[in-house]
Amino acid sequence: MVYLAALASSVLYGAADFLGGLASKRASTAWVVAIAQSSGLLVLVGTIGFLPQADPARADVLWGALAGLAGTLGVGLLYRALAIGTMGVVAPITAVCAVALPVLVSILRGQRPAALALAGIALAMVAIVLVSRQPSAAPGATIPSPRRLPPGVPHAMLSGVAIGVFFVVLAEARPESGLWPLVGARGTAFPVCLLVGALSRGPSLKMMPRRAVLTAASAGIVDMTANVLYLLASRMGSLAVVVTLSSLYPASTVVLARLVLGERLHRTQVVGMVCALVAVALIVVGSER
Questions:
Q1: C-alpha distances in angstroms, 239 versus 2, 131, 179, 231?
Q2: Is residue 275 part of a domain?
Q3: Which of 35, 94, 172, 251 fits a disulfide with 216 by CB distance 3.0 to 4.6 angstroms?
Q4: Could you tell me the residue range of the domain that residue 241 belongs to?
């Protein structure tokens, strides 16, 4: 039952990314993130009362607020990448970068990762190269510059780094703080997104299509539900197994993109996507040993 919850969180994480990217195709990314953050915050606040009592300190909430700034940047870049790029390529790149960064930070702090984690980082680099390759041009077609990455890939890399920073900073909060660091994160992210949306040159919130609003709100609700499932699973089961299952979320993003949008990947990108998923599992399992 515990690992089913972890697997469900993985599916929901991927679904939330897909919904956020889909909404960003129809509206301003800043407003999509703002709506997703607000709907997720409502779910979080409503959930806290059903969890064991926590004892948060001011520092815990502040760490959460700082993490929220990094997380907001990461989610915004991810949604933008999903909107302009191929979801099956973008999602694995972001996941690999997000998981690899905490491992690299642990190395700088004097903690040597296990051989599995090091192998995962090496495989991640290979995966990024493979999924970033564009199909061979047809005869007579214009050959793209080899120095130019496919649309969305640079955003995905930066998104992964920002999300990795989110994980590193959020880990500074004490376990006794419960979900309150997440409240600090979402509480900070929401006004920042509103400010960015108001300052952007794109369409205003009032002009946002209703369908995009509903999709963005659904993304926030699904994402926060995944967070709650992950938290509960991590407290009741083996953390290594739970984290590994939850980190396989790009698979559901790819499947949804294939089923809903009809995205197709060439063989090299398929191999790269598989390598990316394996790399995530190796890094997470290796870092927990």
A1: 11, 29, 17, 10
A2: yes
A3: 35
A4: 2-133+152-288
Instruction: Judge contact between 131 and 272, C-beta under 8 A.
Output: yes
Per the rule left: phi > 0, alpha: psi between -120 and 50, beta: everything else, 151 is beta
pTM across the whole model: 0.78
Give the residue among 276, 288, 289, 10 at the shortest CA–CA distance from 120.
276
Cα separation, 3 vs 238, in Å, equals 9
CA 180 to CA 182: how far, in whole Å? 5
Residue 44, φ and ψ in degrees, nearest 5: -65, -50
Tell me which of 128-132, 159-163, 174-178, 186-190 is least confident.
128-132
Q: How confident is the model over 189-239, as pLDDT tens digits?
A: 888 888 887 777 666 667 788 898 999 999 999 988 887 787 677 767 665
Report how far residue 281's alpha carbon sits from residue 278's, in angstroms, rounded to the nearest whole number. Answer: 5
Q: Which two tokens stand for residue 152?
A: 């969305």
Domain count, the chain: 1
Residue 224, CA distances (Å) to 136, 194, 227 in order: 40, 19, 5
User: Do 227 and 43 form a contact (C-beta atoms < 8 A)?
Assistant: no
Asked if residue 142 is part of any domain, the answer here is no
First to last CA, the chain: 23
Answer whether residue 29 is part of any domain.
yes
Degrees to nearest 5, angle at CA 167 with 166 and 170: 80
